[in-house]
Structures are given as structure tokens and as C-alpha cells.
Design goal:
The complex is a heterodimer of chains A (about 240) and B (about 100).
Chain A: H1 5-54, H2 59-62, H3 64-73, H4 78-97, H5 101-117, H6 122-125, H7 132-152, H8 162-174, H9 180-199, H10 208-234
Helix pairs in contact in A: 1-3, 1-10, 3-4, 4-5, 5-7, 7-8, 8-9, 9-10
Chain B: H1 6-9, H2 11-23, E1 25-27, H3 28-35, H4 39-51, E2 55-62, E3 65-72, H5 74-99
Antiparallel strand pairs in B: 1-3, 2-3
Classes of the chains: A mainly alpha (about 240), B alpha+beta (about 100).
């Protein structure tokens, strides 16, 4: 095969196209990850408000399905997600009204089960690149299980201490430690949370999660910015 | 050095193959969104890849809606990797010649 300038130009153009496909894919994954950060950031900011108003740690659980529905709504069958959310909320409220707390905690079990029942669309499920979001949700689920344990043993005030691990794991999974600003935010989150937990007086300890909530929302904007940069690189009609 | 596979060398088909190499499966709409092309053009290129046995088509129903899924076959995956390897070799030779 003759290697000439024309062939090299064609190949370089084709490499550019493959790069664009990859950038496009990464950009979509980052967008999904950023959305998750925003939703769970808001969860961590809003829930301490309810806990303070009603003086009940159980609100960490009550608000969970509501945010969970948002985290799944883009990826799964919307009607199924809403039905699921209504059932879990009903179980939670019934558990509280009848003071059957085991029923309330059983509601948690429905969250991981929902992943099995509300299967993602086939295109997502068989994705070759393991989705960042799927990793993130697994880490989050580990956090939820720890929360259940702490609530069961009436140690709800230790819930905020779960989040430094989640934040470190999730940022590691996002591969964002290579980005200076995200690394700095991760460091602040990992060290700042437990420090605040020690410093704050007892009734205020759970407000540490609000600190993480704010950090997550900052991550959201930072990742959105990175994603926009990638999108601009990959944008435009990819075919020639 | 092997010849470049003309079936993959065409820009739109190369992108189709790249998407399927990354995602393993895609729908017609997914391709349309990512490649910003017309239905007719896309169908034509998908058909060529299917005829060559590089991709496999699966038609199914989701609820009442018909859905068409495209998969990369084993042969398609091998040919795609072979193509990438060949262009790497060509570029290496070309750079070597430029360096002389």
C-alpha cells in the first residue's frame, strides 16, 4: 500500500473523528455524574432542615425516596419510578404513624431492590464503558446501608461521618483527582467534614452534611464546566 | 502491512464502528443524535456494515414501540481493531520518513 500525503490526511481526519466520538461519550457520562452530584448535594442540604424542624433523625430516611426518584428519573421508566417512590413514601409514613419502625426501615430495602426491578434501558445496561453513575450509585447505596445501621442503633448523629468516605470514593471513581480544583475540593471535604463534626456542639453535628451538600453542588458546577469544555471539543456534526 | 479496510475507512462508518466498539449496542436514534446525519444516509451505511457481517441488527418491541438495536459482531470487533492497528503502523512509518 502506497503511503502518500493524501492517505495521511485521511487517516488524521479519521483519528479526529474517533477522538470526537470518545469525547462525546465522556461528556455524556460527566453530565450524568454532575446531575447526580446536584441531586445528592441538595439532599444533604435540605434534610438537616427537616431534622432540625421535626427534631427527628428519621427524616434522613423520609426524604431519601424523594431524591432517589430524581436520581433515577432520567435513566429509567418514569411512571415505574414514580409508582416506586409513592410506595416507599407510603411505607415510611405508615411506619411512622403506626410506630412500626421495622416497617420504616424495611422501606430502605426497597431502594436497592428498585435497581433490580426498574431495570435500566438496554442501551445503558450493556454499555461497554462502565458508567460512572452506576459506580456512584453503588457507593451511595453503601452509604444508605450504613445510615440504616446507624438509625437502627439510634446513632443517627454519626450519619454525617459517612459522607467523607462517600465523597472520597466518588471523586476517585470520577477520576477527578487528576483535576487540581476537584482534588482540592475533595481534600477540603475529606478533612473538613470530620473536623466540623468534632468542633460543632452536639445538636448541630448533623449539619456537617449540609457542608457536604454545598461541596457537592460546587462539584456539580465544576464538572459541568469541564463537561462543557469537552462538549465544545466534540461538538459539531461528526460526519464529514 | 495490511491494507486499510475500505468499509471502515469511510468516515461515517468509522464513527458507527467506534460508537459500537465503546457502547457495544446502540439504537438508530442514538446514532442519529451522535452523528447528526440523515435517516437515509445512516441506513445506507448501517446496511453496508450489516451485509459485511461487521454489525448485527436486532428488531424488537418495547411496549408497543418498535426498536432496532445494533450490535458489533466478533468479526466487526476484530476488523475495527485491525483497522486501528494498521493506521497506527502507517502513521509510524510516515513519521519515520518525515524524520529522515
Amino acid at each position: 500500500m502506497e503511503i502518500n500525503r493524501e492517505l495521511i490526511d485521511e487517516i488524521e481526519k479519521n483519528i479526529g473523528l474517533v477522538k470526537k466520538v470518545l469525547l462525546n461519550k465522556i461528556s455524556v457520562q460527566l453530565r450524568d455524574a454532575a446531575d447526580q452530584l446536584l441531586i445528592w448535594g441538595l439532599y444533604m442540604v435540605v434534610t438537616p432542615l427537616f431534622v432540625t424542624i421535626f427534631n427527628n433523625h428519621a427524616f434522613w430516611a423520609y426524604t431519601l425516596p424523594f431524591f432517589f426518584v430524581f436520581s433515577m428519573i432520567k435513566r429509567r421508566n418514569k411512571i415505574a419510578v414514580i409508582i416506586y417512590w409513592a410506595i416507599v413514601e407510603l411505607i415510611f409514613i405508615l411506619g411512622l404513624k403506626l410506630e412500626i419502625y421495622w416497617l420504616f426501615y424495611a422501606g430502605f430495602a426497597l431502594i436497592p431492590l428498585a435497581f433490580v426491578i426498574l431495570k435500566p434501558r438496554r442501551v445503558h445496561r450493556t454499555s461497554r464503558i462502565i458508567s460512572i453513575v452506576n459506580f456512584w450509585i453503588l457507593v451511595l447505596l453503601a452509604g444508605v446501608l450504613l445510615m440504616v445501621m446507624l438509625l437502627l442503633y439510634e446513632n443517627g448523629m454519626y450519619i454525617p461521618l459517612i459522607w467523607p468516605f462517600i465523597i472520597t470514593f466518588s471523586l476517585g471513581l470520577l477520576g477527578s483527582f487528576s483535576n487540581n480544583s476537584l482534588f482540592l475540593l475533595g481534600l477540603i471535604g475529606t478533612l473538613g467534614g470530620p473536623a466540623l463534626f468534632i468542633i460543632l456542639p452536639h445538636p448541630w453535628k448533623f449539619w456537617v452534611t449540609a457542608f457536604y451538600g454545598v461541596l457537592y453542588v460546587i462539584y456539580f458546577f465544576r464538572i459541568k464546566h469541564i463537561q462543557r469544555g469537552l462538549k465544545n471539543e466534540a461538538i459539531g456534526p461528526l460526519n464529514t | 502491512m495490511k491494507r486499510l479496510d475500505p468499509l471502515i475507512h469511510e468516515p461515517l462508518r468509522l464513527q458507527i464502528m467506534s460508537i459500537l466498539y465503546i457502547d457495544e449496542v446502540s439504537t438508530f436514534n442514538n446514532f442519529k443524535i451522535q452523528l447528526d446525519t440523515t435517516d437515509g444516509n445512516l441506513s445506507q451505511h448501517l446496511r453496508k456494515l450489516e451485509d459485511a457481517g461487521y454489525i448485527r441488527v436486532e428488531k424488537t418491541f418495547e411496549g408497543r414501540k418498535p426498536k432496532t438495536y445494533y450490535y458489533l459482531t466478533k468479526k466487526g470487533r476484530e476488523k475495527y481493531l485491525e483497522y486501528i492497528k494498521t493506521i497506527e503502523e502507517i502513521l509510524k512509518i510516515a513519521r519515520g520518513e518525515r524524520g529522515k
